[in-house]
Design a protein that fits this description.
Layout: E1 4-7, E2 13-17, H1 19-27, E3 31-43, E4 48-57, H2 73-79, E5 93-96, E6 111-114, H3 116-122, H4 127-130, H5 143-150
Parallel strand pairs: 1-4
Antiparallel strand pairs: 1-2, 3-4, 5-6
């Protein structure tokens, strides 16, 4: 499970990693904890460490510019907060608005999270043909939005309180 946000040395979001990977980066002195999970600490026989929610790399990592977030089934479920786009219940699958058999592709704008019942009911039809209505339109998240959504740090209305960036 990816639950820790990794920031570059310049405080720009890079990726999300597991808690275990984040702890390893901190212990190897490759990253520092910028924001810890409140009330949660990790213990060993020799040390104690706050459980990181946001870490920052000590050295700047050059990353090629990404205009688009890469599409994935997991990304669609996270974007839609695991809620069915047809009924609002818990979603476990991804549905193609325009079915693949009719030329629809694996894109952000053609896929939505769906519960198994609605996905089966819609089958190989468009929502209009199946008499179903989308509760919300699919959208393409920016790469930064995709990272924030994946760690649950973005509620769609306001950004989380980030640690203050030190003055240069």
């Amino acid at each position: 499970m990816r639950e820790t946000l990794v920031l570059n040395a310049s405080f720009e979001p890079l990726a999300t990693v597991s808690l275990r990977r984040a702890v390893v980066l901190v212990l190897q002195d490759k990253a520092v904890v910028e924001l810890a999970r409140p009330g949660l600490r990790l213990h060993s026989s020799a040390m104690e460490l706050p459980a990181p929610q946001v870490i920052r790399l000590r050295r700047y990592v050059r990353v090629p510019f990404r205009r688009r977030a890469p599409w994935s089934r997991r990304g669609v479920l996270v974007r839609d907060r695991h809620r069915c786009a047809y009924c609002g219940r818990r979603a476990t699958t991804v549905d193609h608005v325009v079915p693949r058999s009719r030329g629809g592709g694996d894109t952000w704008l053609n896929t939505v999270a769906a519960c198994a019942e609605d996905n089966h009911r819609k089958a190989d039809r468009t929502p209009e043909q199946a008499g179903m209505r989308l509760l919300r339109r699919p959208f393409e998240p920016t790469p930064s939005d995709a990272l924030l959504l994946s760690v649950g740090a973005y509620d769609g209305e306001r950004l989380p309180d980030w640690p203050a960036v030190p003055a240069a």
